[in-house]
Amino acid sequence: MTTPAEKSPSLVEVSVTGAPRRGTAARLVGGLGSGLLRFFLVTVALFWMVPLMGLLLVSLRSGADNTNSGWWTALLEPTELTLANYQGLVQDGVVLRSFLNTVYISVPSTVLVVGIGAMAAYALAWLDFPGRDWIMVAVVGLLVLPVQAALIPISRLYGALGVFGSITGAVLFHVAFGLPFAVFLLRNFFVGIPRDLLEAARMDGAREWRIFRKVVLPVSRPALASLAVFQFLWVWNDMLVALVLTSPDSAPLTVALRSDLRQFGTNVDVLASGALLSMLVPLLVFFVFQRYFVQGAFAGSPK
Description:
- With 303 residues, this protein is mainly α.
- The protein has 2 domains: 35-82, no CATH class; 92-297, MetI-like fold.
- It contains 16 helices and no strands.
- The chain starts with a helix and ends in a 6-residue tail after the last helix.
């Protein structure tokens, strides 16, 4: 009697001897979850945190203690730590004014870039009009324009318009240089929205503005949040533009700290507390939007 295998010579018997052997690279990747490697990564992260810890301890020590010994001595003598530096910083009118100036520059610059960039990106992604592709090419070209090349022409223009040295001038500059990246990022995200979703809204009688507000913006929260974080951090930590385009009355915190460093190079305690103060708001913004940040950072990337 013949078996089915003998009747069908095309059938090939396959014997499974076990799982294929894993190479060295595969074993290394598989060991990423091991306890030893996790311990190594935590140790590296702690070493990266050493400068921040040093800055914190310097800001909590008096000027005399910082002059006489290193910041690490506070780990053995916690009685050296005090909040006097921060109390003096809060009572300093120049620092408070520069902190408020930073808020007045950063918040409008972020809101305008996100709002205008979202509307422009929607138009370039879903509206058909003459010259749309050329506008997108111009936007991409503006991404490579360095800020330094525009400082002198913009300064002369601001002088003619009467806004040189004002907060308004700094906001306009940051908005102008933040829009190309905003349009590029959001447009790449918007084109990934299913067309059927927009067509269904049009069939229900919704116009473009309503589609933009009720459909596109809710779906694009990760990209909008990511853009807001990028823009806010760039403006908040900026010193070059503020150093050129602002006056002493409108200077942000970065310029004020630089002036203190130039005038009083030895008062490291004041500079350290001011630097930590300038870090608090960006950290708060990042932690608030961190649930969207990772998703939005890859907006428009290939699926």
